[in-house]
Design a protein that fits this description.
heterodimer, A: alpha/beta, five-stranded parallel sheet, disordered N terminus, B: five-stranded parallel sheet, three-stranded antiparallel sheet, 30% strand
Chain lengths: 323, 184
Amino acid sequence: MTGSTAALGKDLIGLEPLSPDQIRVILDTAEPFKEITERRIKKLPVLRGKTIVNLFFEPSTRTRISFEFAEKRLSADTVNIGAAGSSVSKGETLVDTARNLEAMSIDMVVIRHWSAGAASFLAARIPSNVINAGDGAHEHPTQGLLDILTLRDHFGSLEGLRVCIVGDVLHSRVARSNIYGLVKLGARVGVCGPRTLLPARIEQLGVRVFARVEDAIRWADALNVLRLQLERMQDGFVPSLREYNRVFGITRPRLERAPKDLLIMHPGPMNRGVEIDSDVADGPHSVILQQVTNGVAVRMAVLYLLAGGAPHLAEAARDWTGA
Amino acid sequence: MTPTDPTVLMDGADVRRAVDRMAHEVLEKLGGTRRFVLIGIQRRGVDLAGMISTAIAAAEGIEVATGTLDITFYRDDLMTVGPRPVVGETKLPPSGLDDMAVVLVDDVLYTGRTARAALNELMDWGRPARILLCVLVDRGDRELPIQPDIVGRALQVLANQRVDVLVPDIDGKLAVVLSAVEPG
């Protein structure tokens, strides 16, 4: 399989291992899925007869529902498993859970896990396609893809686009997937947040670090505002929520001082009045709800590409492009 | 697969004559209803639908609504051939398809599987009053019980030969060509 082929291989673990062409193929494939909601029957027969297990070891509303919508609109049968109320809470290991599912003939697993590496660990041990829906502070590839798709919708091209990620980059898998994907597609990425919430040596990922949010706003074309995870308060990363808002909050007065209008993104769920103010989140330049809409389209594209995507089929898929 | 020695079966003038006749057949069958739409199957069916629409406008001075359909997600061979990465646009009239007569236009009719997929997709968009299948070339060898209503030219073609319709926007010229497909 060469880097330019359509197939993604068996799994989607992160954006770091993907080639720029593979990322572009996912984004391009998401386009036709956007119009599915205009149809009378909002369903395509692509995954008819496939069984998908959504294995969520961590609470999630948006991502789980988005995946479930995508799966159902592609006609797959879905089973949702949460950590509470399943045998996971009785101490079963991840692999045992997955092997038991395999024994019931499943085709794909969407996994959200608190531990970085869980998705790739699982992918190496079961024959089903595995999609990472967030593993610890590692990656959340479909969120990265939907953010990039939303940026591409608005700016047309990502080449040279300046995107700044603001907030808790240290604990954020969303930030990592965004950085890997955006850098591969030629965008310039900045990060901004309290030094305690920026990973050491983050510059090595090819990003620019801003200590002051005012500088980031002056530099950027778009801001991706991360949620300040409130549990970080207890861990002493930030002194107080009010201080965080005062120093790093994305507020209208701050944005009004910028030389141009910035596109505002947020992966949700938002803490209004902490990392982002309501009049910004609901303002004319916010695309937060479009991110949610694009999320379903991107996940449909990933499911579709993985469903037929055994590597040896990549050749055949490429022949078709010219047909 | 390398096609060799393409033979021209129809040149540009032949295709235009066939398209003119097909346009008149469409009018003959549906002209009275006036509520019909030409839908081209991506990619070359789209060009042909445009040509038929132009021919209808020239003959009767009426504007016919046109649309495009990409049947990729309705194919029955995703699991054997793998996903097709480039998907064309599906664009149907904003008024929908309910109670409309639909003329489904494609370049070559062969196994019938594309037409089957297109029919399923149209049903998910609405409930057309009737659907006609209109193709420039019918090369026979159907694998499904599907027959065209309007045909530009019917051909007998061997299984190891392929028929391609060339259109100006994609291929730089208008023609129908026959080529041999080398085994393997």
